[in-house]
Write a structure and sequence with these properties.
Homing Intron 3 (I-Ppo) Encoded Endonuclease, Chain A; two-stranded antiparallel sheet; elongated
Amino acid sequence: MRPSLLCPYPLRLVQRFWSKVAVCEHGASCKACCWEWLAGKTRGGYGHLSIPKAYRTGYGKLRRANRVCWEIVCGPIPEGLFVLHNCPAGDNPGCVSYWHLWLGTHEDNVKDSIRKGRNAKGLTHGTRTHPETIRRGEANHYAKLTAVDIVPIFREAIAGATYAEIATPRGIGRATVGLILQRKIWGHVVVPEALLTQRACRLPALRPIRGERAAGAKLTPAQVLVIRQKAREGVTHDQLAREYHVSFSNISAIVRRSTWAWLPDAPDVERREAC
């Protein structure tokens, strides 16, 4: 096959390329058959070819065979576009027939991958096919806990300890404790079924950490009620923030009931007396 006038490669490389392609018996005009790449391939089945240093365009030494084929036949590939396959016989990454190639955007590439079932999910995801490659638990170099710490965390939570009381001695965050108890992390550690049952039964009875019990709380319920009343009377959020030594956004959230929403409003007299 003769290269395009826009082909960026020398004739010697073009000849080397086509020597590694199994063109079908019907010839170069055949649009139905796939032309298999006979040389090296990636793990995903795509052919690749070593490109001389003088003709590399920032993609490294190896180039995908389907991209090289497009450049030989049609010229340079516009920046940001991908060379995709549309083989009539089905998905065939090793095909380098220029009749089966087309240019597409990144969005086209993702949609094409999903349509062909190449995107890893469910049982085909790497965490399922190669679970040994996942650094779980103490194998992760960021881990501050070990497997033996997980069951005691469940026991302390069932006994009524707060997340802060569990987290502080271990040097971890309260969010980490919550994720452990929800089995979202360290889920590979076996926890006795009895503990999981007790934990599930206790969840509805747990008192949420909110209001003045929350870490870093600067206000009391009585002060929150007064803030809402003063805001209704026309006091600006800036004035309230300076008076109560909190930020403007905190005052705004209190007035909008984005925070302290569980606190019901009381009559004005009770609010005044509470302060």
